[in-house]
């Protein structure tokens, strides 16, 4: 993801806190905390005003990684739904479609045009909901040596 903490939409965070069943009290506390941030502007060493952001999480805040993980539940839900209705198959280790660690995500599936298109659609949906952006410069499409023919040509076209 691109600039993971800067882009989290507060409405999306609020929805995800409710989805993972935080109580109304905790949702209110967390959202008040997240939305209370202001940044001061310094020009030539003089404070000249404040900026109140409309989205994002604080970079050095110990709570931010946990809130980000809660937000990734949205992406996980989209992947699970696609798998449950047969749009994604995963790999043979089990019905595995994804692995996540912090802001790194590994998507696993068949080298077919339909699965590549579904992964792209899921990521597009997650981007529009959460405000996150996939960092294309840090993204790679890899194929097993067992893929026959020209590995991944149809799948790679979905990502262009």
Automatic annotation (TrEMBL):
Leader peptide range in chain numbering: none
- Domain Reverse transcriptase: from-to ranges: 1-160
| A Pfam family the protein falls into | RVT_1
Q: What is this protein called?
A: Reverse transcriptase domain-containing protein
State the organism's lineage. Answer: Eukaryota, Viridiplantae, Streptophyta, Embryophyta, Tracheophyta
